[in-house]
Amino acid sequence: MNLEPTLQDATLAVSLRGVGKRFGSVEAVKSLDLRVERGSLIGLLGPNGAGKSTAIRMIMSLIRPDCGELTVLGGDALDMKDRIGYLPEERGVYRRMRVGEFLIYIGRLKGLSKSEAALRVARWLERIELPGVLRSRCQELSKGMQQKVQFIAAVLHDPDLIVLDEPFSGLDPVNARILINAVRDLHREGRTILLSTHQMSQAEQLCDRVVLINRGEKILDANTQQVLSDFAPRAIEVEASDAAQLAAAHLGELPGVESTKEGSSPRSLVLCLSEGANPQDTMAHALSAIGCRRLEIARVSLDDVFIRLVTEHGGHARLEARGSA
Amino acid sequence: MMERVTIVASAASSSGFRLSRIMTIAWREFKHTVFTKGFIIGALAFPLVMFGLIGLMPLLLSDKPTPVTGTVVVADSDGAVAQAMAEAFRQYREPSPTAIATGSPFDEFDPDSLDAMGRGVVQVDISRVALDSDLAPIRSRVQEGSLLGLVEIPAGLLESNPSDDLEISLLVPSGSPTKTTALIERLAREATVVARVERSGGDLDATRALLRHPRSATARLNAEGNTAREDIKIRYFLPGAFMMLMWIAAFTSANQLLTTTIEEKSSKVIEVLLSAASPLELLAGKIAGQSLVSALMLSTYGVAGLSGLAMIAALDLVPISTLLLFIVWFVLAYLMVASIMTAIGSAVSDLREAQSLVQPAMIVMMVPLMLWLPISENPTGWLATVASFIPPCGPFVMVLRTTGAMEPIPEWQIAVALLVNAAATVGLVWAAARIFRVGVLMQGKPPTPRELIRWARAR
Fold first, then answer.
1. Level-2 CATH architecture, domain B67-211
2. Which of A70, A95, A155, A174 is the most exposed place for a label (fewest CB within 10 A)?
3. If contacts are CB pairs under 8 Å, which of residues 18-77 in chain A contact chain B?
C-alpha cells in the first residue's frame, strides 16, 4: 500500500488507515485502508455481511473504530455533517410527516434556511420525477418513492461528500435509472461519492474505482477499467452462422489457440489463447476458417471479478490491489 | 490487539454540537406532540374541562334547584312535632347562625356551605293529623302526588328515653326528588328532637348555647419561638395537587420521549437523523422539545389551578417563592425522568420490549405518590427529610414538603436536596446520553441492565 505519511491530505475526501471494528467475537472490519480522492466516485463492493455498512458507519462517525486512523474532509465526520450527505442502508422517514415538511426539516438540520430548503426540495422533486408529493404524508408513498425522498434528504444541502449505502436496492429499473443519472450528474458537478452496493453492473456503470471487501478485509482496490482489463480473459468468442459449421471448423487447432470451451450460445465457442499469442492474428485466422456471425474479444464483468475473487479467496486470503489504487 | 484510534478533528471543530440543530429538533418534537388531536383532547382539553367544572360547581349549585312546594302531613300524638316542623321549614327558608335546620339543632349554620348555596325555593305547609286517625285517604293523596309526603311520628319517640326500635316513617310519591325527601326526613328528625326537649321542660336555647362546638386553631411552635398556623386543607390537598401536577407534566412528556425514540428506531429514520445531527444534539433537542410540552401542560394546569384558588380567595396559600422553587424542582424532576425514559427508548426496538425496562423505573417513580400522605402528615419528619435527598424521588418529595409544611423547611435541607438532586440529574443526563449514543443504532434483543451500564461506561 502506498499511503501518504499524513492523513491530512488535501486531495483526499476520506482516508482510513488500519481501521478495525469488532462486535463481540465478530471482526466486522479488519485493518481497512481506504483513500477516496476528492471528486471521485468510488464503489465499495462486497457480498452481504462483508463489512461495507460498518465501514461506512465508521466513516460517518456513527460508530467509533476500535483502532486505526480516520479522517473525513480533513476532520471528524461529526464536525462535517453539513458537508456530507448520507443515505444509510437502514433508512426510513417519519411516516406521518408530509414529504415537504420532512425534507425541509432534514435540510434545516443540515444548515439550510427554511426558504432555501423549500426551494431546493421543489427543485429536487422535479429532478427525480416525484412531482405532486410535496404535501403527501410519507406513509402514503410507495417504498420506491420513499427511497427517492430519502435520496433527496441525502443530497439536498449540496454536500461535498456523498455516501450512499445500497442506494438502488429495491428500486424498479426505471427509478433505478433516474437515481443513477442523478448520481452521475452529482459526480459531474464535482461531488465526491462513495457508493456501497452489491449490484456490480451499477458499480461498473458508475464508478471510477472499486474497492472490494469480503469478511471485513479489502481484497481489491483498483481503477474500474483497470480491473476489467486485468481480469479480462485472454480469449476470443466466435459465433458461427450454424452449429454444424462450428464443429467442422476445428477452431481449436488455429495458431495461438490453447483450448476451447462453450460460448454464451449453442453456436458460439470461446477460444482461449496461448501465452504470447496475438488476439488480432487469431481473429484473422478464425475469420478465414469460418463464416462468423459475431467475433469479439471476450469481456469480463465486475460480477465475474466479484464472484471469482470472493470464491477463490473465500474471504480469508488478502489479495493485493491490482492496478492503480 | 489493535488499540490506537485517531479521528482527526478539524481546527474549527465544535464537537458536533450546534444550538440551531438542537432548536430545530426541539421545535419538531414540540410541534408533532402538541398539534395532535390526541394531545389536545387528552392532555389539554379534558383536564381543562375538569378544572372548569370544578370551578363552576359552586355556580351550578347556586343555580335554581328544584323548588320544594306543597303540603306535608304530620301524624303525631299531640301536634308538638307538627308545630316544630313548621318552624323548622320557616327557619330553613330564613337561616340564622343557630337555626334548627342546619343538620343538628346544636350546630352552627355556615352561610358559605354547599348546603346554603344549594337552597332554592322552599314553600312547605305542614298539616297535622292525629296519629290514631284513618291515614288511608292521606296515603292515597300521597300516591297520586297531591301531597309532598306523610310523616308518622310514633308517640314513644317523644319520651325522654325512646326505644331504639321506634322510627319516623316518611311516605312520599314515587317520583319525589331525593333532595326533597332528604330535606323532609331531616327536618322531621330535628322537629322530633325539639318537641322532645320541650316536653321534658328543658330550655332549648340554653341547651344549644351550652352544646355549641367552639372553633379551634392549631399553631406550631418552632425552635426559634415562631408560630405558624396549621390549616388542614393546606396540609393535605395543596401539596398533593402540586406534586400530582408535576408528576403528570413530567411523565406525559417523558412517555412521549420513550415512544418517539422507539418510533424513530423502528421506522429506521434514526440513522438519517444521525447523519444530520450528533446523538447528543438529537437527545438534547428531543428533551428540550418535550420540556416545552411539559411546560405548556404545567402552565395550563397551573393557571387553571391558581384561578381556582383565586376564585375561593385562597391565592395567598401559594406564595411566589413557593412557585419559583416549584419550577426548580420541576426542572430537576423532568430532566431525571426524561433521561431515564429516553435511555430506555433508545435501548429497545419496540414498546413491548420497553415494558420490561420501564416497569422497574416506574416502581421507583411511584414512590413519591406512595409517600404523599405520610409526608403530608409530617413534612419535617425524618422520612420526609431522608426521602428528599434520594433521587429521582427527591424533587417530588421537596414539592410535597415546601407546599405543605406549616413551618419553613430548614434552609440547609433545601440546599442539600438541591445539590444532591442536581448532581443526580447531571449524572442521569450524562448516562442517558451515553446509552442513547450506543442504543439508537442497536437492533435485536433488548439489553440487560448490566449491558446498559456497560454502554454508559463505553468510551
1. 3-Layer(aba) Sandwich (3.40)
2. A174
3. 18, 20, 31, 57, 60-71, 73-76
